[in-house]
Design brief:
GO terms for molecular function: peptide transmembrane transporter activity. The chain has 17 helices and 27 strands. By secondary structure, the chain is an alpha+beta fold. It folds into 3 domains: about 130 residues, Periplasmic binding protein-like II (D-Maltodextrin-Binding Protein, domain 2), CATH 3.40.190; about 120 residues, Dipeptide-binding Protein, domain 1; about 240 residues, Dipeptide-binding Protein, Domain 3 (Dipeptide-binding Protein, domain 3), CATH 3.10.105.
Length: about 600
């Protein structure tokens, strides 16, 4: 079947989805048919206090609190919550149409670069304290540095050659100032955004290491605490925080409630009494609770964007949360059976040609997604190097020794020649793949079924298994070919809300460099490593473009449509929300408003539950 038949089938799918969701919206809605607030999208009188509830992504629950992330626990919502308790020195903020590290809530003054770019000096702002009243000092930053330096292989943010490897010496100037002596000169904008920003987190040495244990012993003990999910809310260790919030409850099901840290010394003190992050098994279950007024800040499936007016009539505003991100299917190049196939560049290109990103973005995601073109946000690349082209995919596979037999492609020319299947691929081997995909999203399920159908027509078998997001993230981790875990997955997808969100500089040291912590598929290319280094060292904007164009052509992963993080639906009377493209949260800036001053006083007395 060709493109026209694909579109017909997708239109049929869309019609069915809209009919079902329209029924859901209009039927049996006595509990959710009235307005949730009589306040418009603007105006009103601020209310101090109250509880705001935010919906978490489908089949996702926060499961890591330690500010040093471990592989398999790097979900964006984990990092977003950690930052509310243990903020890093620098956080990105949106100003106009750009992202900047010049954020008023930063714990430190802007870094100062010297000695030809080989030294960076950082001074903590005056007055920052821990929740027990102790000051945040250079010693707390050094404690973090010693932990990652001596335990770097267990840190999910470690990329060989970068932090902590690129710091020759940590110098304490005084209680508020430290200096990093670097192994060479770096692009200051890149180093601030991608090394200092989001990475460097002061940790309470006095509370977490009172016996002055070695970094290895201290890290092992802290890691043990970090794996006790059921004790996050009660463990004394996590009660010493420097951020605007502290833990009230943290259930094993993933529901988290935070309350203000009354000893917080930053400029953005919370207005609310409590913020609750509520998990849902599926987008449909969240939709039902949202429709009945059960969450204040939720989301709707992209398929009901056409019905957004129904929510605005009931006192909500609808606002897609766009991310600075890319989305893809990970390929496990070290899998003992399919790894030899996936290591063939021609085969990866053929698989990419068979993904109709434009149609999927328009029909399955209802225009709330756009094609991913490569390893950096699409707007930074001029074109898609592998647009949907089934004919070219079939020719490419045939030219390398694959023939269709009984509707299934098999290797008929094994070997390593230019017209052969490639090293490690046996004669007669089927082109069969297994995909582990996250559950909970109708759009993701339909996207994977569309890709499966496209592959089937080309003679490629794709088996799909769905699991909750945390399971997928915990399974699709970098592995060696001899490790049992490497046999557990072949392809993986965790991109219902985008696969990877970048700091302001979208370079690839964490994603596609050899040995990078989030290089889940174990891809390695010396030329790509050189181009990634160029983005780190040079301020030339062309360096990022050259890296992006090269890696896009190599297809280390399969690029898929990049969706909005979510189509947010927010109560009109909940204000102060800025949907940061890097997915950071700032509920300390949120507040409720009411229609007049009298209501404000009444609500302040009564509170909101």
């Amino acid at each position: 079947m060709g493109r026209s038949e694909t579109r017909t089938r997708l239109r049929t799918l869309l019609a069915g989805l809209l009919a079902a969701l329209l029924t859901l919206l209009t039927g049996g809605c006595s509990a959710g048919s009235g307005r949730v607030t009589d306040v418009g999208a603007t105006g009103g009188t601020r209310v101090e206090g109250g509880t705001a509830t935010m919906a978490l992504p489908p089949a996702a629950g926060p499961n890591w609190i330690f500010p040093i992330g471990a592989p398999g626990y790097l979900a964006s919502y984990n990092g977003a919550l950690q930052n509310l308790l243990y903020p890093p020195l620098y956080q990105p903020v949106r100003k106009g149409g750009t992202l900047t590290m010049d954020n008023p809530r930063n714990l430190a003054e802007p870094p100062r670069y010297g000695d030809g770019g080989t030294a960076v000096t950082v001074t903590l702002k005056k007055g920052s304290t821990w929740s027990d009243g102790r000051p945040v000092t250079t010693g707390d930053v050094k404690f973090w540095f010693e932990l990652i330096r001596d335990n770097k292989k267990e840190w999910g943010g470690y990329s060989p050659g970068l932090l902590p490897d690129n710091v020759k010496r940590f110098e304490t100037v005084d209680d508020r100032t430290f200096r990093l002596r670097l192994d060479r000169a770096y692009n200051p904008a890149w180093f601030t955004a991608n090394q200092l920003g989001q990475n460097v987190v002061p940790l309470p040495r006095h509370a977490w290491n009172p016996r002055n244990e070695s970094p290895r012993k201290s890290f092992a003990r802290l890691l043990g605490h970090a794996k006790r999910l059921s004790a996050f809310a009660t463990d004394p260790l996590w009660k010493t925080v420097s951020g605007p919030w502290k833990i009230e409850r943290w259930s094993t099901s993933g529901q988290v409630s935070l309350v203000p840290n009354r000893h917080y010394t930053g400029p953005d003190k919370p207005h609310l009494d409590r913020v609750v992050f509520k998990p849902f098994t599926t987008a449909d279950s969240e939709f039902n609770v949202l429709r009945s007024g059960g969450v204040d800040y939720g989301y709707i499936p992209p398929s009901v964007m056409a019905q957004a007016g129904r929510f605005t009539e009931r006192g909500y505003r609808v606002d897609p949360w766009e991310g600075w991100a890319i989305t893809y299917i990970v390929l496990n190049l070290n899998h003992p059976t399919t790894g030899p196939m996936l290591r063939q560049t021609y085969l990866r290109r053929a698989l990419q040609y068979l993904i109709d990103q434009r149609s999927i973005a328009r029909v399955v995601w209802h225009g709330t997604a756009a094609p991913t073109r490569g390893p950096i946000p699409a707007g930074l690349l001029a074109r898609d190097p592998y647009p949907y082209d089934p004919t070219r995919a079939r020719r490419l596979l045939a030219a390398h020794g694959w023939r269709e037999r009984g509707g299934v492609l098999r290797c008929v020319r094994p070997g390593t020649g230019p017209d052969a299947c490639g090293k490690g691929i046996r004669g007669g081997q089927r082109l069969k793949l297994s995909l582990l995909s996250q559950s909970g999203s109708t759009e993701t399920s339909n996207q994977m079924q569309e890709i499966k159908s496209s592959y089937d027509r080309a003679g490629i078998t794709l088996d799909i298994r769905q699991q909750p997001l945390n399971t997928v993230l915990g399974t699709t981790v970098p592995c060696k070919r001899t490790e049992p875990l490497c046999s557990a997955w072949e392809l993986g997808f965790f991109g219902t809300a985008g696969s990877w969100y970048f700091p302001p500089a979208p370079s690839g040291e964490q994603l596609f460099a050899t040995g990078a912590p989030s290089n889940m598929g174990n891809w390695s290319d010396p030329r790509a490593d050189e181009l990634i280094k160029a983005t780190e060292y040079s301020g030339d904007p062309a360096a990022m473009r050259r890296y992006g164009e090269y890696v896009a052509r190599q297809v280390p992963v399969l690029w898929t449509p990049n969706p909005a993080y979510q189509v947010s639906v927010i109560r009109n009377d909940l204000r102060g929300i800025d949907q940061n493209p890097t997915l950071t949260l700032a509920p300390q800036d949120w507040y409720f408003v009411t229609k007049d001053a009298k209501d404000a006083k009444d609500k302040k007395r009564a509170g909101r539950g």
